[in-house]
Amino acid sequence: MAKKIIRFGVIGLGLMGREFGSAAARWSHLLAMDVQPVITGICDTNPALFGWFTDHFDSIKVQSADYHDLLASSEIDAIYCAVPHNLHAQVYIDIIRAGKHLLGEKPFGIDAAANAQIMAVLAEHPQVFVACSSEFPFFPGAQRIFKLLRDNPFGPIIEVEAGLLHSSDLNPDKPLNWKRMAAINGEYGCMGDLGMHPLHIPLRLGWQPRNVRALLSKLVTERVDKTGQRVPCDTWDNATLVGDVVSADYGQFPMTIKTYRIAPGETNTWYLHITGMRHSVWFSTRYPKSLYTLAYTPGGAQIRGEESLGYETAYPTITGGIFEFGLSDAILQMWAAFCDELAHGRDGMKQPFYCATPAETQQQHAILTAALASHRQTQVIPVAG
C-alpha cells in the first residue's frame, strides 16, 4: 500500500524527542496505515544529542542548533517540538508562521497570556494543523472508558477523579533542573507539566469545571544546582484541584484532578475513576490490563467486575491481543492519531479519538490560572470561559 509521507523536524532531542524517533522507527508495527512520518530534520542547542538520531535515521537532511533552519527547510512538512515552557510561545508561533504543522508539548505556553499569543497566531493560519501531546488517554483502559462515556451507561455521575502521579522528585538530593525553576517551567509547576494528561478526556467530554479550589504543595524548597550550591526550588511539587462540573448528559458533580511529582509508591501512574448512579468504572496505568467496574442491578445488587483488556488499541497493530500495552505503545498510538488527522482531517480519521487540541490547551490554562488564584486566596475561584 502506497503511503503518504509526512516529513518531520524534531526540535528538542531529549527524552520525548527520542520517544518520537522510536515511534517513527516502529511505524511498521501499525496495520493498515496509509500515512507515515519520516524524520528529515533535527534541532537542539546541544549538538551532542544529534548522534542518536543520525545513527538511527539515514533520512535526516537538516541538523542544526538553530530551529529557524528547520523552519526554512523545504525538506520538512511538520514539527514535533519539545522545548522548555518559557520557549513555547516564541517557538510555536514561529513554527506556525512558517507554515509547518505542529505537535507541541504541554502546556502550550508558560501561562495563559503565552497560550493566548499562540492561539491568536494559529487563528491567522487556519491551514496549519496543530495539536498537543497527550499519550495516556490512548491506553486501552482509557479508550474503553471514553467509549462507555459516549454511550452513557453511568446515569447521573456522582464524582470523577483523574490524575497523574509519579515520584521523580521524591529524592530531595536529586539535582535541580528546569522543571523545578518557575522562570522556565512557569508558576503552574507540576500542573503545567502534567495537567493536560488527566484533563484530556474530561475536556473532550465538555467537563470544564465552573470553578476550582486548589491545594498546592512545595515539599522540597531547595535543591543542588550544577555548581553544587543549594538554590531555591520554587515550583509546586504537588497539586490537588477540585472543580464543580455541570453536564447536560451527566448532571452536576465534583471532579478532582491530581498532579503529583512526589507520590511515594508511584512511578508514573495515570488514572481515571468515574462513579455513577448506575455504573462505575476505574482504570489506572499501574494495572494496564485491568478495567474495574461496578454495576447495579434493578434489584439493588452491587456487582464488582474486573476485565482483562489485553492489547486493545485505537489503531490496529501486529501485537496479539493477549499481550500487555505500555507507554511506548501509547506514544505510537498518539502519533498515529496525529498523522491520521493531518492527512485525512478529523472526519476522515480511521477512529474517532484525536489528539488534544489547541482549544483544549486554552481550557487547561483557564483551569490552572484559576487554581493559582484559588491557592493564593484560599477560596473557590471561577474558571474563565
Structure, described:
- It is a single chain.
- 30% of the residues lie in helices and 27% in strands.
- It has 385 residues and is of the alpha/beta class.
- It folds into 2 domains: 4-132, Rossmann fold (3-Layer(aba) Sandwich); 142-326 and 341-382, Dihydrodipicolinate Reductase, domain 2.
- The strands form 3 sheets. Strands 16-15-14-13-7-12-11-8-17 form a 9-stranded mixed sheet. Strands 3-2-1-4-5-6 form a 6-stranded parallel sheet, with helices on both faces.
- Helix 1 crosses helix 10, helix 5 packs antiparallel against helix 11 (358-377) and helix 9 crosses helix 11.
- The radius of gyration is 21 Å and the shape is globular.
- The chain starts with a strand and ends with a strand.
- The relative contact order is 0.16.
- The mean pLDDT is 96.
How are the elements arranged and paired?
Layout: E1 4-11, H1 15-25, E2 35-43, H2 50-56, E3 62-64, H3 67-71, E4 78-81, H4 88-97, E5 101-104, H5 112-124, E6 130-132, H6 140-151, E7 157-166, H7 182-185, H8 190-194, H9 196-204, E8 211-217, E9 222-224, E10 230-232, E11 238-247, E12 251-260, E13 268-276, E14 279-284, E15 290-296, E16 302-308, H10 327-344, H11 358-377, E17 381-382
Parallel strand pairs: 1-2, 1-4, 2-3, 4-5, 5-6, 7-12
Antiparallel strand pairs: 7-13, 8-11, 8-17, 9-10, 11-12, 13-14, 14-15, 15-16
Any idea what the CATH architecture of the largest domain is?
Answer: 2-Layer Sandwich
Mean pLDDT: 96
- Topology as H/E string? EHEHEHEHEHEHEHHHEEEEEEEEEHHE
Q: How many extended strands?
A: 17
In CATH, what is the class of the largest domain? Answer: Alpha Beta
How many structural domains in the coordinates?
2
Oligomeric state of shown chains? single chain
Query: What is the CATH third-level topology name of the largest domain?
Result: Dihydrodipicolinate Reductase, domain 2
**The CATH fourth-level homologous superfamily of the largest domain:** Dihydrodipicolinate Reductase, domain 2
